[in-house]
Amino acid sequence: MKKHLTMAVLAVFASGCATVGSVKALEKRVNDMEKKVAKVEGTAEAFDEKVDNVNSRLRSLEQAYDVVIEEINKIREARGEKPLRAPK
Q1: Could you write out the DSSP letters of every residue in 22-63?
Q2: Per-residue pLDDT tens for 41-71?
Q3: Which residues of 62-81 are buried (b: 16+ CB within 10 A; e: fewer)?
Q4: pLDDT per position as a tens digit, 77-86
Q5: Helix %, strand %, coil % for the chain, to 5?
Q6: CA angle in degrees (0–180, nearest 5) for 51-43-5
Q7: Are 65 and 88 within 8 A, CB to CB?
Q8: Which of 26, 43, 57, 67 is most buried as measured by Cβ atoms within 10 A of its Cβ?
């Protein structure tokens, strides 16, 4: 992306439509924007990791829940009661 932008800026500058100051200002804006994009990408990656962590913990909790329900159902069946729900 930077290569294309540099070429475009040079083309505009060479044609006489831009001043040195405006090219430098544009370059600064592009650099600032690239920094912001990099920061957002880093934040998105961190968010994805947190989501993966939560999903993993949820799966573990669901498995533990199924074990508890299975044990409760064994006790209920021994008493002659209906099970709470069928385990997955």
Answers
A1: HHHHHHHHHHHHHHHHHHHHHHHHHHHHHHHHHHHHHHHHHH
A2: 889 999 999 999 999 999 999 999 999 999 9
A3: eeeeeeebeeebeeeeeeee
A4: 999 999 887 6
A5: 80, 0, 20
A6: 135
A7: no
A8: 26
Question: Position of tokens 């294309």?
Answer: 4
* The model's pTM: 0.54
- C-alpha span between 77 and 55 (Å, rounded): 32
Q: 47: alpha, beta or left, given left = phi > 0 and alpha = psi -120 to 50?
A: alpha
Residue pointed to by tokens 């083309």: 11
Indicate the residue type of 76. Answer: R
CB 9 within 8 A of CB 23: yes
Return the ∠ at Cα 35 (arms to 49 and 14), rounded to 5°: 145
